[in-house]
Specification:
The complex is a heterodimer of chains A (209) and B (259). Chain A has 209 residues and is α+β, with helices and mostly antiparallel strands. Helices cover 53% and strands 16% of the residues of chain A. Chain B is globular, with a radius of gyration of 23 Å. The chains are: A alpha+beta (209), B mainly alpha (259). The interface between A and B is large, with 58 and 61 residues.
Chain lengths: 209, 259
């Protein structure tokens, strides 16, 4: 319970990425820039933590451009992805994205002063699929590793999975998604994702500590 | 004879088919019951107490409490590292204990981390895993939460060797154990809220994260790669799709659409 919840926190405290300045930034440089930028913005703006809409706006601007949500959704769905038609794929991606962004906003609200260690990228210049390692240092506890799986696309490097403390976000949704698809089909999954997102919206207006 | 073999195979298949759930979690029904019980206890007692602790006690003090218990834990983290043959890590753990207990004033300051001696995460469950003991079925233990058969034995050994258990008088020991629990739960308040928000089915989400996390810990963050590929192909889904539909390919196929 202890380790798992810590991992879960890290998981979302981790989706720190953003800001496209120049498409051909190396993936590790990109991760570092975006992480530091987001952390600085949050440190500067005292009220942002209590303001969910402002946080979501920050994520939309700085972080989202660097994620491949269609790829993430496909990976999280596993083989069920192929049973969905184009329209269903679009809706699944939309709902999953909303879920991740809202959860991430909530993780950012809980973020306190932690130190990051950016590790040098161990990859060949020709690689198109790399893992960028970051570690969050904290007193009295083992550093939490955050690994971004990134691939090179025509639009620059995109994140398609985040692993925090060894827990892959994408893999962690796979069982849930597959169970729901088995029980109530693709549309059932879309429905339950959007229901989950709506409960967020209802509760989201209350200030979060 | 052939008939017998096929009969046995059929029976096995039937057993697999009827167990619709996750093969890693054969006792899911029972586990969900315990999970529900734990949630109830948490909502009624642990969470309110932990919230009060966080709101009433300054972070400075809470961090000293955290460091104090973390320092005590380093002793057996070192033992476990030695049992796993990681001599250097074990020596580091004991060096941490030595520095923090003295210069860190009985551990309330984590001076060792400031000196660059990193804290490790080890326990007897991980040691057993390192020795080749498999997870065994997933288990939810009362109060303690997510575990597996192997980690359950590990946790029993952790509790048996816990230095805090030797604190005397008994009242001091009980207070220390309670304080440690409250502090640990308080550190998880944000995480458990995030879990509530992230998961469609909290039980499944937490189970899968636990199993992934333990696997990563056993291999100190470097688990062997082949298992990942296996997971990616999702063996539990019937293979009625053409090979090009493999998840790993989907990702790249998708890019073609994006462009």
């Amino acid at each position: 319970m202890r380790t798992i919840a810590k991992a879960a926190l890290g998981l979302f405290a981790a989706l720190l990425l953003g800001s496209a300045q120049g498409e051909e930034l190396a993936p590790d440089v990109l991760v570092k820039n975006v992480t530091l930028e987001v952390v600085e913005l949050i440190a500067k703006d005292k009220e942002i933590r209590g303001n969910r809409n402002k946080l979501i706006q920050l994520i939309d601007e700085k972080v989202l451009p660097h994620f491949n949500f269609t790829g993430m959704t496909a990976l999280a769905m596993g083989q069920s992805w192929n049973k969905a038609n184009a329209e269903q794929k679009k809706r699944l991606t939309e709902e999953f994205k909303t879920l991740l962004v809202r959860t991430y906003a909530s993780a950012l609200a809980a973020f306190s002063e932690q130190k990051f260690e950016f590790r040098p990228l161990r990859a060949k210049p020709t690689d198109t699929d790399v893992t960028v390692n970051v570690r969050v240092l904290q007193s009295g506890a083992q550093p939490v590793p955050i690994d971004y799986s990134m691939e090179k696309t025509a639009a620059g490097w995109k994140v398609y999975d985040v692993m925090v403390g060894g827990v892959s976000l994408v893999a962690n949704y796979r069982t849930e998604f597959n169970n729901t698809v088995r029980e109530s089909g693709i549309d059932g999954l879309i429905k339950s994702l959007s229901a989950k997102n709506r409960t967020f919206e209802a509760a989201g207006t209350a200030p979060q500590k | 004879m052939r008939f017998l073999v096929s009969a046995v195979l059929l029976a096995l298949l039937a057993a697999c088919a009827s167990a619709d759930g996750d093969p890693r979690d054969p006792f899911e029904g029972f586990n969900r019951g315990v999970y529900k019980f734990n949630e109830t206890v948490d909502e009624a007692i642990a969470k309110p107490v932990a919230t009060a602790y966080r709101d009433l006690v300054h972070e400075e003090i809470r961090s000293r409490v955290r460091n104090f218990f973390s320092n005590i834990a380093d002793l057996f983290i070192g033992v476990n590292n030695l049992l796993q043959g990681k001599l250097q890590d074990g020596v580091e753990d004991w060096a941490r204990f030595a520095f923090n207990s003295t210069f860190g004033l009985l551990g309330i300051h984590d001076v060792a981390s400031d000196m660059g001696i990193e804290k490790h995460n080890e326990d007897f469950g991980q040691t057993l895993g390192r020795w080749g003991v498999g997870d065994g079925p997933y288990l939810v233990l009362p109060i303690l939460g997510s575990s597996t058969l192997r980690d359950g034995f590990g946790t029993a050994a952790d509790i048996y060797t816990d230095p805090v258990g030797d604190f005397r008088p008994i009242r001091l020991r009980n207070s220390a154990v309670a304080l440690r629990l409250v502090g640990a739960r308080a550190d998880l308040l944000d995480a458990s809220r995030i879990l509530d928000e992230a998961a469609l089915d909290k039980y499944v989400f937490q189970r899968d994260a636990y199993l992934q996390r333990r696997r990563s810990l056993i291999y100190d963050g470097q688990p062997p790669r082949e298992k990942r590929i296996e997971e990616g192909r999702s063996l539990r889904t019937p293979v009625n799709v053409e090979p090009a539909a493999d998840v790993n390919n989907v990702r790249f196929a998708q890019h073609a659409h994006d462009r």
